Structures are given as C-alpha cells and as structure tokens.
Amino acid sequence: MVITPSAPLLAVEKLSVFYDQFRAVDSVDLTVTPGEIVSIIGANGAGKSSFLKAIVGQGGRVAGSIRFDGQDIAAWPTSRIVGAGIALVPEGRRLFPTLTVEENLRLGWDVGRRGGMTAEEVFDLFPMLREKRRVPAGQLSGGQQQMVALGRALLSDPRLMLCDEISLGLAPAIVNDLYALLEKINRRGIGIVLVEQDISRALNVAHRFYCFLEGRVSLAGVPRATGRETVMKHYFGS
Ligand SMILES: Nc1ncnc2c1ncn2[C@@H]1O[C@H](COP(=O)(O)OP(=O)(O)O)[C@@H](O)[C@H]1O
Ligand SMILES: [Mg+2]
To answer: Bigger pLDDT: 219 or 197?
Structure first.
C-alpha cells in the first residue's frame, strides 16, 4: 500500500470495545496525523482507558479497525504493536517498585523498536532520573514515577505515545513539568494521544481534541475554535 504524506499515523474506525456484553467503547472514529497532539477528554467511565488499551491490544474484545501507518493492527499481539512504534503510558504508571529506575527503563528498551532514543538521551530529557537511576522506583515521588513511566515509553522509540491521565494526583507544579516534557517529546515528531480529566490542560496543549461520553465521541474539534460551553455540554451530555 502506498502511504501519502497526508496519511494519518493512526486511523481508528468504528472501534467498539466489549467486556462480555457491555460495550465500553461504541463505534469510535479517531485519527492522529504524524506529530500531532490529540487530547481525549471525558468523565470517569466514558471509555477513555478502554480505548487506549484496545489500540495496544489489551483489555476488552474489540470490533472495528485500527490502522497504524496503513496496517490493520487490530488483531496484533501487544508486543508486535509496541515493536511497530506505539507506546502506552498506562493509568497508574505500572512500574515495578522494587526494580531500580534504570531497570524499569530497560523494560521499554527490551520491547520496543530499538532505534532512536538511548537511555542517555532520556536522562538528558529527565535529569532527575539520571540522579536516581539506581534507586528503586517505588521510593520515588509520584511525579518522579510518572517521569520513569514516560521515559520507559520513550525508550521503546515510539512514533505514537498514548498517555493515560499522567497528571492524576500530582501537584500542579509537577504537572507543569510533565506537560513541558510532553511538548519537548512532541517536538521530536512523536505523535501523542493524551487522555485527561483536567479539561483545561488537555485543551491547551492539543492540536485537536475528542470528547467521549458513555463510550461515544460526543464532540471533536480544534480547541481554540470551540467554546468552553460547547465543550462542557458534550462532556456532561446535558
Ligand atoms: N476490565 C473491565 N471489565 C468490565 N468492565 C470494565 C472493565 N474496564 C472498564 N470497564 C467499564 O467500562 C467503562 C469504561 O471504563 P474506562 O475505559 O476505564 O473509562 P475511563 O477511562 O474513561 O474512566 C466503565 O463503565 C467501566 O466500569
Ligand atoms: Mg481511565
């Protein structure tokens, strides 16, 4: 298949995610072009995490198509998807607390594409991690652990990073640092899908956004062109 320059990096069509009979994600269409930051906002239970997990082949049963760089990856195992260049920074970070920072980072290196970024480059982006490289991840602060989770994803050399509520439970100053890092990462040409409950932050950083409501896309657009009232109406569905 010939890929034109304008082809989306990720093209999701009519994606549904089921847990038994329950449909957590319902016929979602979503695209990400190379180098874009796309935010997904939505209330608790709207299906945001189920959507991100489905893209990397985890979680519920899926129907619909997920194309990455022109290939349908919907039936691929997670390892192959990560190897192709999609990295998930999962909700709750999912680090190995007794392993050191460096050991946690190496896990990203082991599963990914192995080009691009080295551990030293990740340490340049996150100098704090270099200082703490021999410290068990479980001893770091929440913000520092989130940086390890981002660093681990970067070491798999992704072209697309899916970030699930990276700011949850962190102090505003730390969240500012994380968002500055995301923009740095994006400037390297890496596409980012950002799931957030903090609507202001999600809209400020994004080129485009989608709002999920009860598993469906209730609104999609460009943040600066969309009024706050419109967003809130589609966020709460009333
Ligand atoms: N493993 C699971 N088994 C059954 N239901 C689930 C599972 N994970 C999520 N759900 C349900 O799917 C819906 C969407 O959840 P989720 O994707 O976590 O939403 P969000 O990330 O937007 O808060 C919720 O109703 C949730 O209870
Ligand atoms: Mg979630």
So the answer is: 219
Domain encompassing residue 92: 10-36+47-96+160-236
For the domain that residue 29 is a member of, what is the CATH number?
A: 3.40.50.300
Q: Which atom of ligand 1 is nearest to the CA of 212?
A: 22
DSSP string, 140-208: S-HHHHHHHHHHHHHHT--SEEEEE-TTTT--HHHHHHHHHHHHHHHHTT-EEEEEES-HHHHHHH-SE
pLDDT digits (tens, 9 = 90+) for 31-82: 999 999 999 999 999 999 999 999 999 999 999 999 999 999 999 999 999 9
Q: Is 108 inside a domain boundary? A: no
Tokens of 181: 């890092």
User: Which strand (E) or helix (H) includes residue 84?
Assistant: helix 78-84
Residues with CB under 5 A from ligand 2 (ion): 48-49
Q: Which residues line ligand 1 (CB under 6 A)?
A: 19, 22, 24, 42, 44-50
Number of domain units in the chain = 1
Spatial distance between the Cα atoms of 191 and 86, rounded to a whole number of angstroms = 9
